[in-house]
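Section: Multi-chain targets

For targets with more than one molecule, the full set of components is provided together so that the structure can be written out for the assembly as a whole rather than chain by chain. Components appear in the order listed by the source. The example entry contains four components.
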Amino acid sequence: MNTDEKRASVFKEVKTIFTAHLEKNQLRKTPERFAILEEIYSRDDHFDAEALYIQMKNQNYRVSRATVYNTLDLLVSSDLIKRHQFGKNLAQYEKSYGFKQHDHIICVDCGKVLEFCDPRIQEIKNMMGNLMNFKITHHNLNLYGRCTGSCDSKPLEN
Amino acid sequence: MNTDEKRASVFKEVKTIFTAHLEKNQLRKTPERFAILEEIYSRDDHFDAEALYIQMKNQNYRVSRATVYNTLDLLVSSDLIKRHQFGKNLAQYEKSYGFKQHDHIICVDCGKVLEFCDPRIQEIKNMMGNLMNFKITHHNLNLYGRCTGSCDSKPLEN
DNA sequence: TTGTGTGCAAAAGCTTTGCATGTTG
DNA sequence: CAACATGCAAAGCTTTTGCACACAA
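Its structure, encoded as tokens over all components, is:
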């Protein structure tokens, strides 16, 4: 299966999941919602709401920011995307279906974001959930630092 | 030593640290900066910039939001306070001097924030720093879930 | 005295909301 | 056709910035 075929197949699956979620919550299956889902799953890496909005506009898809924000919330509820705030007042999102749960290392100089997995996180979640009497649903672990050598180490403006 | 004496002694120490930081960076030791530091260390728990600003105002201390934000940045640089974003577009801060490094469990229903420590985090930081060639400076680990029973489980408005 | 810090208000940036219109079920 | 979703623009909220004045060094 080539990349395009794989993308098409993944999109079919997430569309099914999203449809189920909409039906379960008696929400409407509008073309905008599926167009946004498709746009997100056609790209890689992290993005913010404005970037997604611009992307849609660039493809001459008529959509409003309100709908983008609304749909992002729905997709987070559906567990199809994840929302992050890497220390700034700007929400970042990433698609999550079919990807292993992972955490992030962020370079405070160049803003680069790498991903990693560590099974100890799950152990901590289980243990702390029991200890504190919490039903843990999700988590965020961000490690911040400087990527020695591999970035030019110029501090970011924003 | 009673609570007030302890507070006074802690404030003396953080004042020394802050003074050193200001001098090292050739910044001015203004009364506003120390008043804000004192206000922060006279209270417990997490707070946001606006709450701090209001607190100062309520005590008839004449200070501006600009100065509050400026000073919060300085205190973060001095490692005297920590900045968090618990999933919302609002920075939260907490004093950190004299407190053990810790992470947070947040109830998504009632907003309650608990703290915990786990030595495995440090191991993960060391391991990932080496693996990814990062010099890790700090991290955030937030566990989100529902505090079963202990909260009234009414979802928060904001 | 000099230039950094402050207060104030305006501006900026991200997100939400109100309202009229469109469209799903 | 009735309720919900959308588009658009305005408003909301947190944070930043510009400018004149104050004050630390």
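Residues 153-158 of chain B have pLDDT under 50 and may be disordered.
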